[in-house]
């Protein structure tokens, strides 16, 4: 809803056109914003309070798969859906571990980390980046060797647009079984949802790493009595057959009461459609679309949880959800553990590893524009976020950079100081923030690439 519009939108087909845009930006003094898919929760790739231009890399979407070496080069304007579709067209046993929204651009998603439904078995997208092509503030085109290991470290989890314009990533593909199993089971308060969700917290990060059970919490209308209640939706992927999944669930999480009829076996690529919300038997061609799913106005926040939330804490969440109109808000619990913990906090810039049970994504959305309507919903989610403080990580209270939140520190001038940036920097990036500042100071001391929450140089 920002009144400031871009002076120009550049949609390059060639790297030389990006170099030209960088030159023109320096000559004109108009700041550049870089957009690959519009995933940024605060829209910093296409919204600003100062004059700016957008370099939108949507036309740079080439994908080259090497099935023999299990690698791929993917340009950052490609979407996750296009990447998944292209991999599946070459192999039924190769895949990539990244997010569930098929229209998200590769560039922003991977450079911020890239959590997805296979992360407990194969960790996050950024852990599988093995090379990159980046254009720096001088217009130089760099690969891993020429950019150096510090900069290559930074763009894997620290966000790419603070350091340059990443035009391509080389990634390691993962090996998957030909058949996977999915399920989406709902439990309401009347079906002991409070107790089941409480128990889920003790199981989700420790269960078989081939299983990822995501949990969505929202207010719904009960099909039994027509009254409002809380629905807990256990949306899950198991990398294997249903007959192997059921004994695991019966042993580790019998409280859910999962039965074979709840489960569906399918190839991995069809599970991508399932988690994106497409009906069964939808053509895989839908994954090649670059048209984003229609979204109303919304506000998002995030947290990491290191100790299970007690039942009385969950009941407080239910009260907040009951305040919002049905389906206007939800909390998404994404379990960690498994292979995510195989990496140290400093191995790449993404720091959220051992010690996290799950991540929370808070979202509220509304259809009606206007300041009063927006304030009502934003105030609601801020109150919920404040309520959650005793139950989430502390010192710092951490957050996921791919769920960007300007409430935790911003500068309308897009020229962030170290002191101000440290407010959000340590929340998103923990102690890796200090090293990211050093890298920024080395590769972009003039702070050419910047936005309201970019990594600042020391000077």
Describe it for me?
The protein has helices at residues 15-28, 80-90, 106-111, 119-122, 144-147, 149-154, 193-203, 242-252, 268-275, 311-323, 371-387, 418-429, 432-443, and strands at residues 9-10, 31-35, 52-56, 63-66, 71-75, 94-95, 129-135, 141-142, 165-172, 174-175, 180-188, 211-221, 228-238, 263-266, 297-305, 329-335, 358-366. By secondary structure, it is α+β, with helices and mostly antiparallel strands. A seven-stranded antiparallel β-sheet has the order 14-11-13-12-16-17-15. The longest helix has 17 residues, at 371-387. The radius of gyration is 22 Å and the shape is globular. The model has no long low-confidence stretch (mean pLDDT 94). This is FAD-binding Berberine family protein. Belongs to the oxygen-dependent FAD-linked oxidoreductase family.
| Strand line-up of the largest beta sheet | 14-11-13-12-16-17-15
Briefly note the structural class of the backbone. alpha+beta
Number of strands: 17
Question: Low-confidence spans: pLDDT under 50, at least 5 residues?
Answer: none
Write the layout of secondary structure elements.
Layout: E1 9-10, H1 15-28, E2 31-35, E3 52-56, E4 63-66, E5 71-75, H2 80-90, E6 94-95, H3 106-111, H4 119-122, E7 129-135, E8 141-142, H5 144-147, H6 149-154, E9 165-172, E10 174-175, E11 180-188, H7 193-203, E12 211-221, E13 228-238, H8 242-252, E14 263-266, H9 268-275, E15 297-305, H10 311-323, E16 329-335, E17 358-366, H11 371-387, H12 418-429, H13 432-443
Parallel strand pairs: 1-3, 2-3
Antiparallel strand pairs: 4-5, 5-9, 6-10, 7-8, 7-9, 11-13, 11-14, 12-13, 12-16, 15-17, 16-17
Helix pairs in contact: 12-13
């Amino acid at each position: 809803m920002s009144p400031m519009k871009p002076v120009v939108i550049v949609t390059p087909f060639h790297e030389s056109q990006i170099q030209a845009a960088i030159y023109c930006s320096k000559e004109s003094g108009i700041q550049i914003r870089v957009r690959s898919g519009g995933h940024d929760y605060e829209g910093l790739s296409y919204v600003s309070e100062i004059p700016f231009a957008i370099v939108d890399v949507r036309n740079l979407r080439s994908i080259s798969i090497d099935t023999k070496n299990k690698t791929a080069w993917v340009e950052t304007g490609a979407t996750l859906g296009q990447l998944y579709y292209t991999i599946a067209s070459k192999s039924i046993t190769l895949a990539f571990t990244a997010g569930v929204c098929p229209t998200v651009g590769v560039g922003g998603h991977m450079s911020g980390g890239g959590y997805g439904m296979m992360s407990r078995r194969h960790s996050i997208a950024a852990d599988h980046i093995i090379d990159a092509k980046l254009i720096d503030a001088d217009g130089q085109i760099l690969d891993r060797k020429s950019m150096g290991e510090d900069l290559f470290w930074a763009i894997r989890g620290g966000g790419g647009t603070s350091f340059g314009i990443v035009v391509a990533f080389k990634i390691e593909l993962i090996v998957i079984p030909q058949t996977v199993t999915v399920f989406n089971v709902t439990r309401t308060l009347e079906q002991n949802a409070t107790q089941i969700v409480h128990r889920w917290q003790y199981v989700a990060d420790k269960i078989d790493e081939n299983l990822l059970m995501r949990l969505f919490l929202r207010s719904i209308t009960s099909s039994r009595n027509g009254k409002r209640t809380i629905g807990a939706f256990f949306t899950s992927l198991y990398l294997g057959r249903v007959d192997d999944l059921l004994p695991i669930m019966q042993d580790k999480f019998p409280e859910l009461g999962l039965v074979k009829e709840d489960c569906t076996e399918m190839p991995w690529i069809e599970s991508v459609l399932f988690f994106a919300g497409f009906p069964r038997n939808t053509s895989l061609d839908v994954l090649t679309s670059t048209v984003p799913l229609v979204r109303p106005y919304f506000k998002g926040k995030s947290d990491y949880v290191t100790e299970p939330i007690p039942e009385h804490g969950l009941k407080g969440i239910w009260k907040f959800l009951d305040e919002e109109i049905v389906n206007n808000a939800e909390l998404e619990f994404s379990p960690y553990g498994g292979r995510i913990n195989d990496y140290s906090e400093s191995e790449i810039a993404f720091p959220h590893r051992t010690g996290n049970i799950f991540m929370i994504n808070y979202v509220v959305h509304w259809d009606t524009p206007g300041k009063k309507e927006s304030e009502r919903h934003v105030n609601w989610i801020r109150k919920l976020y404040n309520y959650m403080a005793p139950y989430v990580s502390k010192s710092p209270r951490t957050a996921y950079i791919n769920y960007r939140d300007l409430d935790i520190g911003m500068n309308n001038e897009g020229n962030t100081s170290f002191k101000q940036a440290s407010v959000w920097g340590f929340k998103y990036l923990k102690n890796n923030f200090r090293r990211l500042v050093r890298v920024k100071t080395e590769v972009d001391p003039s702070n050419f690439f910047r936005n309201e929450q970019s990594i600042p140089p020391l000077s």
